[in-house]
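Predict structure. Chain length: 526.
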Amino acid sequence: MTLEARYDPARDAPLTDAAAEGPAGPAGPAVSAPVDGMGCHAGAGEMEKAARLAGKSEILDRYAADYPQGPHDKPQSMCPAFGSLRVGLRMRRVATVLSGSACCVYGLTFVSHFYGARRSVGYVPFNSETLVTGKLFEDIRDAVHELADPDRYDAVVVTNLCVPTASGVPLKLLPAEINGVRIVGIDVPGFGIPTHAEAKDVLAGAMLKYARAEIGAGPVQAPLQGRSDRPAVALLGEMFPADPMMIGAMLSPLGLAAGPVVPCRDWRELYAALDSGVCAAIHPFYTAAVREFEAAGRPVVGSAPVGHDGTALWLKNIGEAYGVAAEKIAASQNAVLPAIRAALAATPVRGTITLSGYEGSELLVARLLIESGAEVPYVGTACARTPWSEADRDWLEARGVRIRFRASLEDDLSAMEAVRPDLAIGTTPVVQKAKEKAIPSLYFTNLISARPLMGPAGAGSLAQVVNAAIAGRDRMEGMQRFFEGVGGGDSAGIWEGSPNLRPEFRAAHQKKLDNRAKAAKAEEMI
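Prediction complete.
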């Protein structure tokens, strides 16, 4: 059954954006000391076992299907909850509340403000007593009732972190709405969500599910920017701000328009996204969001208009999904592909590059680098393989690229050390290790993914920063020679004598670790 949004003009009065006014706003309860016991330091297996005993099996099974685990049982990037927190904080008129250990909330709040959040993050503190007796849930419910002011907010998002999830705090028992304010409760434990990229999908999917139910129940508010006069394509995945505009320009010859970008910036955009006739999974890891689009009867198209080959295939697939005539599809391709070829030829990249990251767009960037002239023998992504990344995987593997889904840090470092590339693009520890070895390197998140990738604008966007970094190899080697002899690791620095390494202490500590591992293994066998 295909879902169709009906818009109610009587509900479209403008509202103030209180949630975007900055830190001023209702404060949560005072911060207390973190609960004793399990936390991020605990084994993921123990946390998951506790969560299942506490009634969270259904959601953990859903996460296991949507986000299959890799070779490691804990995230190797930042706390996954940062992804869902970031989605909520970027939305107008949406309040965000965290329930978790104080140290976790402090870290998430710090990182969110480091990345430009300009509003408060609510926090419901707890201790062992309130966690065990169920008082924490009552405190969360009271906080939500206090926040639910329809003049200020369209929605309140409540997020359980690891400890409340493992303890079974039942956010599903919160009211669905209070005074017309939607209440969205999600669990984002580090032992169930492998990356912060996929945590974005948890909240985006939950919001789309809520919005889809609203559309099914009756008329909803029209988007603030109005409805498109052409059929629209919803864009799934966070992108550089210029990319949706470039995609819109490429869709125009097809008689189509770029729809909202999911995750959205406004609740009403969720209705418009679901009302779009086709969903383009630009980033392929939004499994929960795709499920909602498919439930609304929308076909989902994978990959993205990146480079010459990617753009040609994407325009073809989008056009066919909308039933556009083949002649019109060919005309749209002819309108943009020559400009992309010219941009790639004008800004070549020469060198061998290893590429890794946890944003989910790694395969798209690799395609663009290869079409720019680079050799890319290895691509590692912390995200899982999905049906919507298959076209990119096939294209890359046909050109000899080794792709590692759910790549670990060890995978990325091993590839870099084996290849000894002219440039290593990766996460912070990969970049750090590359610099130690005098290999030029770039941080993927800040220096690569924060650039346009789509269409003609994306075709030449990477060459300048990539070529400049490759050209810096002599400088890196000079720095390595300058610091030669100062030691490394725990013997780094300049010593008057030889460092006192105390190998007997290391051996004794390692013996304790080995005995602890043997005891844990024995318990598993009982």
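Summary: The chain has a mean pLDDT of 87.
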